[in-house]
Amino acid sequence: IRFTSCASSRALRxxxxxxxxxxxxxxxxxxxxxxxxxxxKDITIIWPAExxxxxxxxxxxxxxxINSSLxxxxxxxxxxxxxxxxxxxxxxELQTRGGIYLISFPTxxxxxxxxxxxxxxxxxxxxxxxxxGPHPSANKEKTLExxxxxxxxxxxxxxxxxxxxKTIESKGDFSKxxxxxxxxxNGKIIK
Length: 191
Description:
- By secondary structure, the chain is of the alpha/beta class.
- The protein has helices at 6-20, 61-72, 89-92, 110-123, 134-138, 140-147, 160-170, and strands at 43-47, 77-81, 100-104, 128-132, 151-153, 180-183, 189-190.
- Mean pLDDT is 81; it is low at 1-6 and 19-37.
C-alpha cells in the first residue's frame, strides 16, 4: 500500500500496531501450559523512530510478532512507538520498577536508542533491557558493551522471547536459552 500523505501512513501504522494488541496474528508459539498468573514484571516493547530516517512508515512486523507471542503466552504488554511520541513523554513518565523492556533498532537510530536507554535507566534503575533487530544482531558484543543492554536477542526472536522472559522472571539460567548473548551477574558477556 502506498500513501501520498504522511498522515495516512501514520494512521495505517497505528491501526496495524493496534491489531497487534488483539489476538489476530497467530504464530507458531508454544501453547500456554495451563492458567497463568499475571506476570510480576511489566513488559514494554519500544519501537524507536525518526521520521527523517524512516525508509518506510510500515509498522515493525517483528515487534508485532513478538508482542503476539508474549500475549499468547499470557503476558500483558505495552507498546511504545516513538514515531507517535517523538518527545518520549511516555518513557519520561514511566512508573515501573524492575520492568522488562524490549527495543529493536537499526544502526541509523543508534543515538536515539542511547537516549531512550538513558531515560529507562533513570526512570527504572532495576530494569532489564533486551535489544534486538538489525544493529544488535550485527554488532552483538559491541552493542551489549557500549549501550548497557542486559541481553541481545539474535535473529528472529518471536519464539525465544517467551523463554527469555520466563528466565528473567524466575532468575533462571540464560545459558539454556538459544539465540542470545547476555551479561552474567558479574557483568561478563556470555555468548
